[in-house]
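Q: Could you predict the 3D structure of Nudix hydrolase domain-containing protein?
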Amino acid sequence: MVTTNGRTGGGGADDRASGRENGQWYPPEWPDRIRRLAHGELEPVPPRRASTVLLLRTGADGALAVHMLRRRTSMAFAGGAYAYPGGAVDPRDERDVPWAGPSPGEWAARLGVEPEVAQAVVCAAVRETFEEAGVLLAGPDPATVVADTTGAEWEADRAALAGHELSFGDFLERRGLLLRSDLLGGWARWITPEFEPRRYDTWFFVAALPDGQRTAGVSTEADRAVWIRPAEAVAGYDRGELLMMPPTVSTLRALLPYEDVPAVLASAGERDLTPVLARARLVGEEIVLSWPGHEEFTKHLSSGPPHTPATATPGADA
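A: Sure. Here are the predicted structure tokens for Nudix hydrolase domain-containing protein:
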């Protein structure tokens, strides 16, 4: 069952990925960009660091549910696709913030990065969850969490953060709060393919919806917000009704063995955070697009019109 803004419903006609075998997000410009990259005509854009959070709760039926947003079709990246709250690291996320839980150094060891990068990634995860879902993983001390984030003043802070008018550190200090890094668990890491014009090196985290808090309405980047069972979301994708990117589908499938939130959080420490990066090869007149270790997303595509640059190399990796 899908719960959206207090109502119940399934995917409507506007959710259907017409003509697809499933709901895998696939921009029409990819084949041309893959060809250009393979032939050395396209320089990969450096990926920006980003964070996203699989926000979890136990539904009224006792089943595990995850919070998802449908990105507005006007968005330049993955428009119309279902995703989790998240976004790019803000340079100000690297500044010192009031902190409780595992230190940036401890997170650095878990994420495989430098402490300052780990701090920024964790800070971005908490900040983006508040900006996009209205859920705040912070509290007045290391043992408590804010119980209610509704009301005009909280909404004004969300808007100021989203508009880059307020840094997350300043927001926490003004409210006398500590970022609770212990409420997050590392879940996965995916890097946008090299042929994409907008690239992100994204860490996926899991977190429980804090007691007393509830998700807010949609943000400026989304037109629908839902709580949905992972199995239902995956089934919608498999039927071609819910559009999603491979990282979203993969992280959803990874939730399927778990019956409740504590079980997910307990397993997070054992998750492999080796980054997943797509590969594309030109094989004769065919493009083979794959994500190592995730064979379900492999695509065999026509290479399209003849492409004859001076240094064409069939079979080259992109």
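Q: Anything worth pointing out?
A: Residues 62 and 187 are 23 Å apart (CA to CA).
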